[in-house]
Amino acid sequence: MTLFTLFGVVLAYALAAKSGTLWDARLAAADRAVGFDWPVVLALLDQCPPLIWLLGLAYHSLTMQMIVVIVALGGMGKFDTLRTMVCAAILSGFVTILISGLTPAMGNLFDPARYVHLWPSIAWLEQGLISGLRDGSLRVLDLTMLMGIVSFPSFHATLAAIFIWAFGAMPRLAGPGRGWAILTIVATPVFGGHYGVDVLMGLLLAPPAIVAAQRLTQRRQPCPQPGPGLPA
Fold this sequence. Notes:
It is a single chain. The chain is mostly helical. Helices cover 66% and strands 0% of the residues. It contains 11 helices and no strands. It has helices spanning 2-18, 24-34, 38-45, 49-59, 62-75, 79-102, 122-125, 127-135, 155-167, 171-191, 196-217. 34% of the residues are buried.
């Protein structure tokens, strides 16, 4: 997962540097078409600081969720589920990065100065990075400070959905673990600066990634060895 993260983020940066016209207008129009009214949502959320903290912490805890799932599955001996989960995360990660190269976007930006309690989203904080990659002013990458810049689809949503599946293999952790992942999905549009359609597409990528990973990681049964009475 660490190697994938390094390689995947560098690939995302390279694609962002070579991408074409931004898709923000189309993604925003798709959000409006399916009923996402973000100014209203943000105004209501700004009136509830405890909910902001809960969702904000859930969104920024994705790496911790991954660590918990990996350690718990390994500790319980659920190695088949662990292999599938890691493989699904890597497969879906590459897919989201490649799609993002075809559908580049700055993200669902909102100015945090207009609100009292809302935090700046990742998309808001990384505007300069994306602009620098696109106009050529940024060509040196600091491997200690790599940031996720994929908008469509949302890899946060995909990973959280995969974690929901993985937590199902651990009955004692299934309830709180799945709740934690669901909060992350709900928080992604606000704290990740994603469009609603980013999240929906991210969720749709999770099931096929899990199925493909199950097939790739499935252990092959050894061929039966010839024995007494069996033809060689």
